């Protein structure tokens, strides 16, 4: 074990030394500095992986028979993970990406001895945005899924439904690695009915705020 620990420590030290040497080669100082490397400066970029947390509120009206007509609302919270690529199609401010999220939900309806609850939901979406320095304006859309529980007098039904989602938002980097966002999403599901009720059309509006941590979100560009 001591031998393995020693080898691991030596390997790690070597990797760090090599990485430091390579990083140093990227820079050229003033007179007497490096002469072969370009003069570069760190710049913020949206390119890279990120992960974060969010919370928000969902609401809408249930479109069904009179037993379920009413407000369908509540809070939710969860997390997201994704990847951005800035400079897509040769346009520097253009950002494309993909994001997946999952939410625990208290969104539901309870009246007239009937309940309809969205226990959890999530999405897998594409993102298309335009970077304005440290801010990103984007549209998003894709696949949605959710777990529903419907109850009545002496019966209940649980099922997972799929649907679609569209929306958009604004994200801003407070530091090269930390960003905050505010986002609107509209999710649409159709819950199959049974002998107790007709098909339920769930169109849920959501507004959320969130925080993201961006991995490797600093790039370099030549100084002129």
Mean pLDDT: 79
First-to-last CA distance: 52 Å
List the uncertain runs. 1-34
**What is the topology, as strand order, of the major beta sheet?**
2-3-4-5-6-7-8-9
Assign a percent range to the helix content.
10-25%
Structure description:
It is elongated, with a radius of gyration of 25 Å. The N and C termini lie far apart (52 Å). The chain is mainly β and 224 residues long. It is 10% helix and 64% strand. Strands 2-3-4-5-6-7-8-9 form an eight-stranded antiparallel β-barrel. A two-stranded antiparallel ribbon has the order 1-10. The longest helix has 23 residues. A hairpin with an 8-residue loop joins strand 8 and strand 9.
Features:
single chain, 224 residues, mainly beta, eight-stranded antiparallel beta barrel, two-stranded antiparallel sheet, 1 helix, 10% helix, disordered N terminus
Short description:
The protein has 224 residues and is mainly beta.
Tell me the layout of helices and strands.
Blueprint: H1 2-24, E1 40-44, E2 48-61, E3 71-86, E4 94-111, E5 114-132, E6 135-152, E7 155-173, E8 178-191, E9 200-214, E10 218-222
Antiparallel strand pairs: 1-10, 2-3, 2-9, 3-4, 4-5, 5-6, 6-7, 7-8, 8-9
């Amino acid at each position: 074990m001591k031998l393995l620990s020693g080898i691991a420590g030596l390997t790690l030290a070597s990797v760090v030394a090599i990485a430091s040497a390579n990083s140093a080669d990227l820079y050229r100082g003033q007179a007497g500095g490096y002469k072969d490397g370009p003069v570069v400066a760190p710049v913020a970029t949206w390119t890279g992986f990120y992960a974060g947390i969010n919370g928000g509120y969902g609401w809408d009206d249930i479109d069904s028979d009179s037993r379920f007509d009413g407000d369908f609302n509540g809070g939710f919270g969860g997390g997201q993970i994704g990847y951005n690529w800035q400079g897509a199609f040769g346009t520097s401010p253009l950002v494309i990406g993909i994001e997946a999220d999952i939410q625990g939900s208290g969104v539901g309806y309870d009246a007239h001895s009937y309940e309809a609850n969205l226990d959890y939901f999530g999405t897998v979406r594409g993102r298309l945005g335009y970077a304005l320095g440290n801010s990103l304006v984007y549209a998003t859309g894709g696949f949605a899924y959710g777990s529903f529980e419907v109850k009545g007098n002496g019966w209940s039904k649980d099922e997972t439904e799929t649907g679609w989602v569209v929306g958009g938002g604004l994200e801003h980097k407070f530091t090269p690695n930390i960003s905050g966002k505010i986002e609107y999403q509209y999710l649409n599901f159709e819950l199959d009915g049974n002998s107790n009720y007709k098909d339920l059309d769930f169109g849920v509006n959501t507004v959320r705020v969130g925080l993201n941590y961006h991995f490797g979100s600093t790039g370099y560009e030549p100084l002129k």
